[in-house]
Structure to design on (622 residues):
């Protein structure tokens, strides 16, 4: 039985919250997939984006599907700058992300 | 701390005042007790004396009367008269003393004794002395007065017993008072010693704390100085690395114009890894690049230098920017370097074409005559993020007089709202075009920041095609809006062609709705 775990962070993600972000982005007990819920995130600095990429690499290494939900237009733009759309399936609502993860888990 | 020791001091002083007050009060109380006891003692002694003296006086009277009766000699009458004269005085004094010490029973006995004496004088002594000496008669009278004498003796004994008892009580009271003084003084001494000990201990702790704080402050200062020195050294190195970049001259060409600016963060804790390059190549071509290393300090500066060298050497080998970035990425990934974002491309002054690729970097901005400046497409991961990243190639057919603006994220992320930042940048670029400024880069920076403090390094590089006379002007096509539409990273404008194949980790990405 594999469950989908949700990692939720909000606000502006920057270097002063590095520890919190590193702790949040872990894979333990997430075999069914990880929903990175950044719906209420409005900004992320390069440190955070690097953390996200590290997380993506680790998940990829363990074959765990990851989806990211983004609600803020400005944060979506940053994600676009960073090319993270290449590394993550990006969604603008949680439902679509869960549907995607469910389908990935069955596949 | 000062406040604490002050309140301690006040507490100690108040305690001492309280103890002193108790001592003085207790002293007065004990003094009263003792004074009273001594006054009593004097009165008791006097009472004992008078009590003895009236007994002696009574005996003198009896002896005088008995002697006269036995011998008929008047010589015995002398002592009798003397005693007789003293007796009332002594009795009055005895009664006064007994009254003064409050011995009411003894007082009553003294009054009684005086009365008995008077009766004895009247009934026995005077009849004997008034008559001719007659022993027989005297013996009868004396026997008749025996009861009176006995009663007098009893009164005298009672007075004596009472007063002696009173004397003992009084002495006991003095002993008690002295004991109380001892207790009081002892308690006070213990109390004062305790308060003193507490005060001294507090003083000692205070001293220890002050000492410890002084040591810690000194330690912190030394540490801060060490850190400061290390930081200064690092900043000097990073600054000189950064300066080396700023000093690299931009090419001077008849067909292309350049402008550039690098403004380090106002906060001196941040020495960034921003750089830009413009390098002349054969056939009217120019390599341009701008980049930013994640993080700050020497490591960032060193990584920046590596990325930059790798980029230039790759550009000499590869003809297209996507391949250039692919090589640099492989190199940076291999070195496990901090992430680097960059834009690299070629400008062709013969065809007015810009070809570029981006790696996790904000999009280039294009200013064309008569049009509103627009942001070009961007995307793809930063350099060093994934080993096999492949970069999209964007080909922009532009026009004479067009200016390509490259910048680092500090130029658009200063407010944390990147959409707002982009609008400000576009406005600044439009202003530069309108005013036909020479130093476009500096103009844009000044317009955006307007003298405000800058939280991150900002580098700006612009490349302009020389303006052409009206003939042969190429009209650029649809606006390349990179809006938040469609799947991120794939919303390239119509005139952008991709040369590199897509490199998607997940091939089954769902479509994303526009929000």
């Amino acid at each position: 039985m594999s469950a989908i775990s949700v990692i939720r962070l909000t606000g502006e993600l920057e270097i002063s919250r590095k520890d919190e972000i590193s702790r949040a982005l872990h894979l333990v007990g997430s075999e069914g997939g990880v929903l990175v819920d950044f719906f209420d995130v409005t900004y992320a600095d390069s440190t955070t984006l690097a953390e996200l990429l590290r997380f993506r690499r680790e998940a990829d290494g363990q074959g765990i599907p990851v989806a990211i939900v983004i609600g803020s237009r400005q944060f979506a733009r940053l994600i676009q700058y960073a090319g993270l759309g290449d590394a993550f399936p990006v969604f603008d609502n949680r439902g679509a992300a869960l549907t995607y993860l469910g389908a990935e888990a069955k596949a | 701390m000062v406040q604490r020791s002050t309140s301690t001091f006040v507490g100690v002083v108040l305690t001492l005042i309280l103890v002193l007050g108790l001592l003085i009060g207790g002293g007065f109380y004990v003094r009263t007790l003792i004074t009273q006891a001594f006054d009593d003692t004097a009165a008791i002694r006097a009472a004992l004396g008078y009590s003895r003296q009236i007994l002696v006086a009574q005996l003198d009277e009896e002896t005088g009367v008995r002697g006269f009766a036995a011998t008929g000699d008047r010589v015995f009458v002398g002592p009798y008269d003397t005693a007789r004269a003293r007796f009332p005085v002594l009795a009055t004094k005895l009664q006064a003393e007994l009254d003064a010490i409050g011995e009411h029973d003894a007082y009553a006995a003294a009054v009684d004794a005086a009365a008995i004496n008077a009766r004895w004088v009247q009934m026995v002594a005077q009849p004997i002395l008034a008559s001719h000496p007659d022993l027989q008669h005297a013996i009868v009278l004396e026997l008749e007065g025996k009861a009176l004498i006995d009663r007098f003796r009893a009164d005298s004994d009672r007075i004596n017993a009472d007063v002696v008892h009173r004397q003992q009580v009084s002495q006991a009271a003095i002993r008690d008072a002295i004991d109380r003084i001892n207790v009081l003084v002892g308690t006070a001494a213990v109390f004062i010693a305790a308060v003193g000990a507490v005060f001294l201990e507090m003083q000692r702790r205070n001293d220890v704390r002050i000492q410890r704080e002084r040591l810690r402050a000194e330690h912190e200062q030394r540490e801060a100085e060490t850190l400061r020195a290390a930081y200064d050294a690092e900043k000097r190195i990073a600054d000189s690395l950064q300066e080396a970049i700023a000093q690299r001259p931009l090419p001077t060409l008849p067909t292309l114009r350049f402008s550039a600016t690098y403004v380090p963060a106002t906060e001196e804790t941040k020495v960034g890894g921003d750089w830009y390059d413009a390098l002349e190549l054969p056939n009217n071509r120019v390599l341009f690049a701008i980049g930013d290393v994640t993080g700050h300090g020497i490591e960032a500066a060193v990584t920046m230098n590596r990325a930059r060298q790798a980029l230039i050497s790759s550009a000499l080998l590869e003809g297209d920017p996507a391949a250039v970035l692919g090589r640099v990425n492989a190199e940076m990934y291999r070195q496990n370097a901090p992430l680097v974002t960059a834009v690299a491309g070629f400008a062709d002054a013969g065809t007015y074409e810009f070809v570029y690729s981006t790696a996790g970097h904000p999009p280039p901005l294009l200013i064309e005559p008569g049009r509103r400046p627009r942001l070009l497409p961007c995307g793809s991961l930063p350099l060093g993020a994934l080993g096999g990243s492949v970069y999209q190639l964007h080909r922009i057919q532009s026009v004479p007089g067009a200016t390509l603006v490259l910048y680092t994220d500090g130029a658009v992320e200063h407010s944390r709202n990147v959409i707002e930042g982009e609008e400000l940048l576009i406005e600044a670029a439009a202003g530069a075009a309108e005013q036909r400024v020479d130093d476009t880069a500096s103009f844009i920076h000044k317009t955006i920041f307007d003298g405000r403090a800058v939280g991150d390094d900002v580098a700006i590089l612009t490349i302009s095609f020389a303006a052409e006379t009206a003939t042969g002007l190429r009209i650029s096509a649809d606006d390349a809006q990179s809006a938040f539409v469609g799947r991120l990273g794939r919303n390239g404008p119509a005139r952008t062609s991709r040369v590199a194949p897509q490199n998607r980790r997940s091939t089954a990405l769902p479509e994303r709705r526009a929000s």
In short: Chain A is about 40% helix and 20% strand.
